[in-house]
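#struct-queue
[09:14] JT: dropping the first one here, sequence first, then the structure tokens:
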Amino acid sequence: MNIHTPNRRTLVRRGIAGATLGAVLLSVAACGTSGASTDQAQPKGDPALTKLVPSALAKKGTIVVGTQPDFEPANFTPVGESQIKGFNIDLMDAMAAKLGLKVDWQKVPFDQLLIGMQSHKFDATIAGMTDRKERQAQVDFIDYQVAGTVFMVQKGNPKKITSEVDGGCGIKIGDVKGSDAKRLVDMMAAACVKEGKAPTQLISFPSSSDKNLALVSGRVDAMFWPDMAVSVINRETDNKLESLPVNFEPKVYLGATFSKDDTQLRDAFFAALKAIHEDGTYAKILKKWDVEVIDLPTPGINLATS
């Protein structure tokens, strides 16, 4: 699929070229930086929905949302720009507008999102986080998309990895710190050990660009990747990688997170999500980014059961 992107050199290519901008971006993001101006005109909102917003937040007129800044096409900052873009950004902006709110985007590493929610640094987050029962103990999810998973490996699959749970014994899998990969790697390692083979290992990296570069350079043997973004990683790595299915992982729900202490705000955004489904905005955003494969026709709250 052809993902809409600016004409730019990506984080991955900069890493391959040895440039340092990605490291600078990450060090800034670790402190939490604003990714979009909040001085745009205040949305009027839908009167039937604006009344659902907690009064203090409605008076403030702005919601603080945390996101990871380096995963295209979901949430990423193009080189030479400060404003974050992607389908997650468009979806959250559209929901907030229905509620008469502007979004103050805060860019942080993925593993800081739940920490930021629990410390009340953010009112919400959206970054393609997998809804899991264990995470539901910390936050509430508004599930707005589904995602499938593939392996990305070097061209030609030199390690002869297969799609099965025991198809990567002894290999190193790279992923972003705090992601859902540990659960999958633990499943693979257990299957390998049961067969008397070397366990699969997880190597964690601070950002997606670091992870991608590690695979291209051979420091890891594979990584998990969303099925809707295979064309992005192939373009960014000059087709040095190829994908294969992950047969032991069903499609999962991905959601925006909200504090368990503020169900009123959660419910307001859930109503806004249903509204952008009904008026066609949701479908238009998915089409714009060529990610119709993520479509979840009936969104919900805390849909994951495992």
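[09:21] JT: and here's the second one, same format:
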Amino acid sequence: MSAEPSQSVRPSAQLASGTPKLQGSAQIEKDSILSVRDVTVGFGNKLILDGLDLDVVRGEILGFVGGSGTGKSVLMRTILGLNKKRRGSIEVFGRNMDTATEGEMTMVRRRWGVLFQQGALFSSLTVKQNIQVPMREHLHLSQRLMDELAILKLDLVGLNPDAADKFPSELSGGMIKRASLARALALDPDLVFLDEPTSGLDPIGAAAFDGLIGQLSKTLGLTVYMVTHDLDSLASVCNRIAVLGDKKVLAIGTLDEMMKNDHPWIESYFRGERALRRV
């Protein structure tokens, strides 16, 4: 399995508070907002995921980690319907994504938001216009109301109103992440997918973004599915951590549980020299 990029942990990092109380697998399934069962995904003759199971609990921030090329983003894109699976089932908000009607699928998509790697803002649109893309697709609002909502979303993610009329090329890396998050929050979702949200940010910017995610999750009641390789994020905002390897979820639990896990890759990741140097 490929080695992960170097990691470091802030000295004072603690596991996020407010973890949903989980009393065994039955309770987790009951409280699950996203349920993945026996999912298998491959490209050509190569299997990326094989019989993978996963539950994401309502109200939690789940950090999803794994070695480079193990399929973290592939799984997220499969859940979103952007990759086809060969086997298995995916339920979101209690709806089976294979048997849901088009109307049910539309309602599910309105209840989630996505922040892709590098932000994925439309370069030809201003920040305000980017935020309004999902509004135009799913809502019937006046331009004036959409403009007001876009400004509210910018404020929610800590951007000034003057960012609204800027193009992505005029933004810093941190501002792009925040603008992309504002777009992900455009429809007031219940579930937000974040793909490497702190990648490319300096330590101060990454810590600020982590803090923003934690604050939004707490104030808005968001459930967050976060693909990351950043140990700082795992330690500071994630309630639980899922580890992907060998085409399946190897382990899922709190940071303390990961620190005690004796699987070779998990031990190397969470208790390796770089990880422990600043704990």
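[09:30] RK: nice, looked through the second one.
[09:31] RK: Residues 203-220 form the longest helix (18 residues).
[09:31] JT: good to know. Residues 112-188 form one domain.
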